[in-house]
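Bug #77: duplicate submission created two jobs. Keeping one. Sequence:
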Amino acid sequence: MSKLPICYAGFLWWGVMGMTQAADPQAIEDLDKLGSCVGCDLSEVNFRGKNLKGVNLSGANLEKADLRNAYLEKAKLVGANLKNAQLSDANLSGAKLKGANLSGADLSDASLFKANLEGAKLGKAVLRRANLSNALMAGVYLKQSNLASANLFNADLSAAYLKGANLEDANLSKSNLEGANLDESSLSGASLVGANITDASMREAETEGTAMPTDAQ
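Kept job's structure:
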């Protein structure tokens, strides 16, 4: 009988102990056999503080899951449902979240360094002080999200929808905001030094104290 890798063994143990009735028990068996849980139901599961590095949860339902302080570096969460999930202080560096639904999720103080969030939905999500530097966020939906004091240095936010977003004191230096919608957003105290704002819309945006690109008028 083959031995389960240590990282997955710990994952399975916590899954059994931490799952709520909303999660599908079969998901744990799938992880045991395959080392992944593609498209499974883990809604409201409790994986707080767990090591889930590199786990494949693409298409999985993690709505309202507790992933606070979880280690999800390089995890595959493509198309996953993380609506209203708790992800504060989680490590999602290098994670693949393309097309994922993170609407209403709490990602305060989370690390998403070099994460792929292209086309992801983050409407009304909380990303206060989150590290999104070098993240791929083209076409991301961030309407009315809270990105206050977030680090978006060198992030690709081309064609992103940020209408009504809170970007106060955020670091957007050298970010790509080409074609982005920042209408009615708050950029007070934010830094856009070296950012590309070609064709970006900032109608009725609050820019008091904002450090704009050197070529901005």
